[in-house]
UniProtKB/TrEMBL annotation:
The keyword DNA-binding does not apply. GO terms for molecular function: zinc ion binding. Residues 1-352 form the SPX domain. This is RING-14 protein. It comes from the Eukaryota. Residues 387-426 form the RING-type domain.
Length: 480
């Protein structure tokens, strides 16, 4: 099945909102524009086969005469590039539908002899040569321009070659001696209209996608803030153990981080995930919620509402990521098709400011960052307060001079062993610690947010202290 059909089917059946579908890249319309570009080029004798032949002849000349050619000296008989047209209004504001206040217009340039106006490649058909010659001689016409590169400091270059070899812009190489006989040349601009239509349409669609993403970003940022307020309310530890859902939400967020729905810091799958993998991970997270029956352990009805909104927000992020992935694929496919039909190499010359910005500035990435910085920290994670030696909660916390924190039990063990080096930074600070290093503020914080873990660790510390004083069998029944 062709991509155009798959793309349209995905837009219609994947549940995207109508305004999203309307803003998507119009693959079929752009494909029709490519046919018009192909037809226009062919009418001038510049079909894809001919242009590929010109490029191939340059490669053969390099292989035959210049085995040590630098990449920056790669000679081409024509150039296809983009010029920027400023579209800022009188107040200096960007016009609607533009990128960075500018539109990028394509132009096709061919090297011709400065004296005769003839193309510098003998493989062109006589009809094409005559047409280029006419263009070169028609400098006064409004729809034809000859750009004298040697007189323009912004585009100054020199072109080398003969009728048997193609030539190209050598702006970086003009200070070095030419390898073959050189002669003055000019770049004649071949007037095209259909390619401007193609790239104008593509840029408008990319600008529409950027606008849609900005709107979605604002919408979901507001949802994250509202959800954060609700989670804060149901997890407030001041309400008492039996009146808040702190433990349940801590477990929910732990499962969410372990699921690595949209991003991962693991070595094997480091970085952002595509929509397919994100969907799989989100499904696994939902299944874990069901398996651990966390939905039935809430004490406050608002927690169920908050969890529903949390799942819905992740589904929105996933939908946005899926929409972005399919438009990025459509973008890559249409540029590849343009190059295949025209051999103009636009994937390299198409301005990166348009090519990348709307499709790489991911709403999913922005919202996930907001989730990790604003929502998840509402419920402190136990992993952030573990002792690096015993891997249980650092209670009572001792802050060494190097600012690393250990539980008091592990500090006592290190001091009894006369180990003066911090296990993390190897600083000689352990033996200097005493009761003055006890972090009282952190003690109160742990009691507030980790009451269950603190009680367990306190009981463990008391038993360890009793064993130190009365021996290992102090809590065992001697009669048994």
């Amino acid at each position: 099945m062709k991509f155009a059909h798959l793309y349209q089917e995905s837009l219609q059946k994947d549940g995207f909102p109508p305004d999203w579908v309307a803003s998507a890249i119009s693959y079929r319309q752009l494909k029709k524009c490519i046919k018009r570009v192909e037809t226009e080029l062919s009418s001038m004798g510049l079909d894809a086969d001919t242009l590929n032949l010109l490029l191939k002849s340059v490669e053969e000349q390099h292989t035959k005469h210049d085995a040590q050619v630098d990449e920056e000296e790669d000679e081409k008989p024509f150039r296809y590039q983009f010029r920027s047209q400023d579209l800022n209004n009188e107040n200096g504001d960007k016009e609607q539908g533009t990128s960075n206040g500018a539109r990028f217009l394509p132009k096709l340039l061919f090297a011709v002899d400065e004296e005769t106006g003839e193309p510098l490649d003998a493989s062109l058909t006589p009809e094409t040569k005559r047409e280029f010659h006419v263009l070169a001689l028609s400098q006064q016409l409004t729809d034809v321009r000859i750009l004298d590169i040697t007189d323009d400091p912004a585009r100054r270059s020199s072109f080398v070659g003969s009728f048997d070899s193609a030539t190209s812009d050598m702006s970086d190489a003009e200070k070095r001696p030419h390898r073959r006989h050189s002669r003055p040349v000019r770049m004649v601009e071949v007037p095209l209209t259909s390619d401007s239509e193609f790239f104008g349409m593509l840029q408008d669609q990319l600008s529409g996608l950027a606008k849609l993403q900005a709107e979605q970003n604002v919408k979901m940022e507001s949802e994250v803030k509202e959800l954060g307020q609700l989670v804060t309310k149901v997890t407030d530890p001041s309400q008492g153990k039996k009146k808040n859902d702190l433990a349940q939400w801590r477990k929910i967020f732990e499962l969410y981080l372990e699921s690595r729905v949209f991003f991962s810091t693991n070595e094997q799958d480091h970085g952002a995930h595509d929509s397919e993998k994100a969907e799989k991970n989100l499904r696994r997270f939902s299944e874990e919620l069901e398996n651990q029956k966390l939905l039935t352990k809430f004490k406050k009805p608002e927690s169920k509402e908050a969890l529903d909104r949390f799942i819905s927000l992740n589904l929105e992020i996933l939908q946005n990521l899926r929409f972005q992935d399919i438009n990025r694929l459509a973008m890559a496919k249409i540029l590849k098709k343009f190059d295949k039909r025209t051999a103009l190499g636009v994937k390299k010359t198409f301005p990166s400011t348009i090519h990348t910005s709307p499709l790489t500035t991911s709403v999913a990435k922005a919202i996930c960052y907001q989730l990790s910085t604003e929502l998840l920290p509402i419920v402190p994670a136990l992993d952030d307060y573990l002792c690096p030696v015993c891997f249980s909660i650092s209670y009572k916390p001792i802050r060494l001079l190097c600012n690393h924190i250990f539980c008091i039990r592990c500090l006592v063990i290190m001091q009894r062993a006369r180990e003066n080096h911090c296990p993390l930074c190897r600083g000689e600070v352990v033996m200097q610690a005493d009761s003055r290093n006890l972090d009282q503020d952190l003690i109160e914080y742990m009691k507030k947010w980790f009451p269950k873990e603190v009680r367990s660790k306190q009981h463990e510390n008391e038993r360890a202290a009793a064993r130190d004083e009365f021996g290992e069998n102090y809590d065992k029944c001697v009669l048994m």
